[in-house]
Amino acid sequence: xxxxxxxxxxxxxxxxxxxxxxxxxxxxxxxxxxxxxxxxxxxxxxxxxxxxxxxxxxxxxxxxxxxxxxxxxxxxxxxxxxxxxxxxxxxxxxxxxxxxxxxxxxxxxxxxxxxxxxxxxxxxxxxxxxxxxxxxxxxxxxxxxxxxxxxxxxxxxxxxxxxxxxxxxxxxxxxxxxxxxxxxxxxxxxxxxxxxxxxxxxxxxxxxxxxxxxxxxxxxxxxxxxxxxxxxxxxxxxxxxxxxxxxx
Length: 248
Fold this sequence. Notes:
Pfam families: Acetyltransf_3 (PF13302)
Number of helices: 6
Protein name: N-acetyltransferase domain-containing protein
Helix content: 25-40%
Number of domains: 1
Mean pLDDT: 96
CATH class: Alpha Beta
GO molecular function, one term: protein N-terminal-serine acetyltransferase activity
Organism: Kiloniella spongiae
Domain N-acetyltransferase: 36-191
């Protein structure tokens, strides 16, 4: 533990780190999907059509906006969001059909702390629980840690949103606690659950994602053979075995 001259505990020196740049909108290309700048002209109709398949507009339950009954009102929202730099919005596009099926963004971008959040995640029914959905999150995470050099990647959600909390943990985020009465959304109280993944945790997740996304991990009908969490366990066991071997 580090202490100062008064014997007070202080944080360790952060070595070999410089303040990262702010993310800029760029194409992130994966095997199954690509992420590109949210474009009102290119993406609005695809997204509106895909979102309209949500049962009783369930995808909007925990968001501060929506549902949108008309294409024109949704287009106004897309135009507004696409013009912002924080949040910085991406459309998630199916590479087979070239249609946008969901959105996600970087927000609370704080280069001085090396921290930012992924949020405003809204996956249409056609994107939910697919390989594309996981790959999209992986591409955004990899960009933050590998290409930009951030130290902390955050995920926050309504504490009542069990699906979002399960997704966060599956993707490697650690639950940090709940902020009580953190906001009022659509006239209702919101407690906010906080999650994060740190730069030193990324290498294991990077390997796990790469193994999970490999084509030989899926059957012809896109069923996974090994889960992401099992790959994480496997990699940790491999590392532990290598450490034991090097010691002996």
